[in-house]
Amino acid sequence: MSEGAEELRRQLAELLEVEPQSIGDDDPLTDHGLDSIRVMALIESWHERGLSLSFAQLVEEPTVAAWAAALAAAKQG
Q: What's phi and psi for 3, nearest 5 deg?
């Protein structure tokens, strides 16, 4: 997985209070305790960094792999 995915995994692990290696690329993040409040907090932190992602976009496929791809696309355009 890319460096961006590993950074995302570390961010999610900190937010969810789990070890980064416990989150697989294709694990549903809801299985690790991700809820809508935490998704909104992530969106806000990314917006502050100039990355535009929507709640609907993220909950459609809540995995590290999907979110890393969405973040990479947001960084490019």
A: -60, -35
Cβ atoms 51, 61 nearer than 8 A = no
Q: Which two tokens stand for residue 4?
A: 């961006």
Q: Answer left, alpha or beta for residue 72, where phi above 0 means left and psi between -120 and 50 means alpha.
A: alpha
Domain 3-76 top-level CATH class: mainly alpha
How far apart CA 48 and CA 23 sit, in angstroms, is: 25
pLDDT digits (tens, 9 = 90+) for 8-66: 999 999 999 999 999 999 999 999 999 999 999 999 999 999 999 999 999 999 999 99
